Amino acid sequence: MRCGACCREIEPGSNLVLVSPAEVRVIMAATSLTFDEIAEPYPDFIHEGKRRYTLGWAIRRDGNRCKFLGEHGCLIYQSRPWICRTYPFMIDNENLMVSPCSGIGTGTDVMDPEIVNRFVQDLIDRQQAEKAEEEHIAEVLTREQIPAGKLVVIDGEGMRIMNG
Predict the structure, then answer these.
(1) What DSSP designation does 79 have?
(2) Which residues pair with 46 in a beta bridge?
(3) How far apart are CA 131 and CA 149, in angstroms?
(4) Cα gap 152→162, rounded to integer Å
(5) How far does CA 136 lie from the centroid of its chain?
(6) Concatenated DSSP letters for 57-76?
(7) Sequence-distant (≥ 6) Cβ neighbours of residue 84 within 8 angstroms
(8) Per-residue model confidence as pLDDT tens digits over 53-111
(9) Which end of the chain is flanked by fewer CB atoms within 10 Å, N or C?
(10) Is the pTM above the cut of 0.90?
């Protein structure tokens, strides 16, 4: 439906879009915005003594809505992240998961098999990209020492110490 409901916060964190550095770079190329203008540290922090870190990035939000939700829809539709491209579906292990979405079951037309095949491939590609990012983060965690007293973001490209 492209209604944008999933781009607005209905419950705390309901419009939180986890993105990889590679996805941020695609958006950077499409918008000429900087990494920091697009993404912020994922707000689920891990606290270990004086160490505070998170494992990834989220698309910035303006108030209760995605930074890229315009008056007439997504401003970065052609370069949107995997989670937006495949919502409300995702593959978890071998299971197809479906998030709440008011658009499910509202279509009356039979979908074009080519569109369905492309969407299924997007789901598979998303799962593979997320798995690769998780593996890279695990590698970073085994080789990097997380400094105490700093806010740190760890992603598949390494460790980034934030200001504040």
Answers:
(1) G
(2) 53
(3) 30
(4) 6
(5) 16
(6) EEE-EETTEETTEETTEETT
(7) 6, 17, 74
(8) 999 999 999 988 999 999 888 999 999 999 998 888 888 888 888 887 777 766 655 57
(9) C
(10) no
